[in-house]
Amino acid sequence: MNLLSTNTKLAKGQDLGYLAVGLSLLPGNKSGREACPNRGACFATCLDSSGRGSMPNVIAARLRRHEMLNEHPDAFLALLDLETEKAKRKAERKGLRLAVRLNVLSDLPWEEMAPDLFTGHPDVTFYDYTKSPDRAWDNLQGLHPSNYELVYSASERTSNPWAAVYLTAGGRIAYVDRPGTPDPYWAEAARRGEDGLSWADGDAHDLVFLQPRGAVLALTPKGKLKKAATKFA
Fold first, then answer.
1. Tens digit of pLDDT for each residue in 153-170?
2. How confident is the model at residue 222 (pLDDT cuts 50, 70, 90)?
3. CA distance 73 to 115
4. How many domains does the chain fold into?
5. What is the residue range of 178's domain?
């Protein structure tokens, strides 16, 4: 069983000098254990069922990974370490650097679960989106491994004052931009380039750590979200 794989958006990293791979588990509580403790309206429109994600064999593979993590965590982390090393060698053969997204569909605190993974691969960039304000802030303040970058993913519970402070401090926020719906003031400020903030294309590639500091990464609605009432995903 392979833990790390790629997808269309991850593959865009090669044009930027990176081989990007990710770990896809089942989101929310679909495995029987919560993998997205800060989820909200996004769960109803999660992209886990988009594209090949609706195929039974893909769902089964994600479930097997989750079961291995829950039932045999030491073996899981050993395999993740091994696959990271193999991916790093593959990237080197291609003249690329390796980037690993640990939460393609989940929101697990890998800085707590696998600290040795980051120290064991200091030349690898790990990154994730998170809906946890606490994780995002701690990461920005340097309380996580230096080679682990988090981007805060806006939700219906995002505080306007907190988001503005987070962006001004150099954080990045992923935001679903749906024309015709009002933006929070921090997103409006970023769109206008005020307060040192900027607006960036979040769909251009998945390597969020290469995006400008203080940027709102605008994402277009995808999958179920195209027809959903919520703008968060």
1. 999 899 999 999 999 999
2. confident
3. 13
4. 1
5. 4-226
